Amino acid sequence: MRQVLTPDGNTSKEPKIPNKDLVKMYEMMVQVRLLDEKGIRLQRQGRIGFYVPSTGQEATQIGLVAALKDSDWIFPSYREIGIVFYRGIPLQHIIDQWFGNANDTHKGRRLSCLVGVREANFVNPSAPIGTQIVQAAGVAYGMAHKKEKKITAVFFGDGATSSNDFHSGMNFASVLKTPTIFFCQNNQWAISVPLSRQTASEKIADKAKGYGMPGEQIDGNDIIGVFAAVKEAADKARKGEGPYFIEAITYRLGPHTTSDDPKKYREDSEVEQWRAKDPILRFRKFLENKGLWDDKKEKTWREEVLKEIDEAVDKAEATGPPEIDTIFTDVYKEMPWHLKEQLEDLKQFKRRYE
Ligand SMILES: Cc1ncc(C[n+]2csc(CCOP(=O)(O)OP(=O)(O)O)c2C)c(N)n1
What we know:
It is built from twelve helices and seven strands. It is α/β, with parallel strands linked by helices.
């Protein structure tokens, strides 16, 4: 298993990353963690409907995006929102989607947290597990066909490796040498199904061999190792050498979503063991050793992010819902008569309660 940063934050073979990028990577990891804490609280208070945390998995998403170009396309699973922040999307954009308000680019039509961001080349997540794997392979094939030097990176979990689309996507990409990074976040659980019930393979990374694709297992809680592996894979893909498979070993510290109670299927002691391997703490030690971070910077950054989150939540909550017409629009160019009638009925019904 590739590991560049040891658990105590030391390294002997770090890739070249400018100091300002290292600091940005850390700041974004902390932002994702703080956003998770807020998202869960808002759902518990009944202010948003649903939340999907990525606590414990911050190093994979941020390490990957830092190693790619902004023009590369990301096909997320649903625990990678840090990528859009790294690419400059404001918190408000995402928090508006949680509330499904009038400023939500998805017009309140999607489950909160299942958000795509066009400006960040961050494709809409698909709820059916594994579908993004074939999409990423196909889009990469199209890009290569057009001689664009872009690549696609697709995130999926250990559970998704049991989907039909995993087989189709891996096979298609390997045969046609598409510029795709297949990034499996092995967080040990697929809701309540442990890894031991998901596959009989010794490593998920071994599956790549069966498709004739190079691949490796890496420590997914080591952001520098993630960066190095993704950078190498991206350089190869851009040179026309085809796809690469990465299995990142990590752990979902929180619930699967706010609809899940992990105490029903796993021991607290297991969670505590992984909490000690927190990717944020490890990276912080590394930055402190280099003199790039300290307690004062930590305090200031946390205060700044929390203030921005609170302001964005207040604004999102104060923004009304999308116009009622949006329930009917964007399907037909010309709205058919029966939908026009239903829209009129709905408007009259609504007026009774105004
Ligand atoms: C085709 C399909 N089957 C089942 C589900 C229900 N489901 C949602 S998430 C999930 C587990 C996915 O686990 P994994 O791929 O390991 O990703 P993780 O959630 O751990 O990040 C399941 C079974 C679904 N969304 N789609």
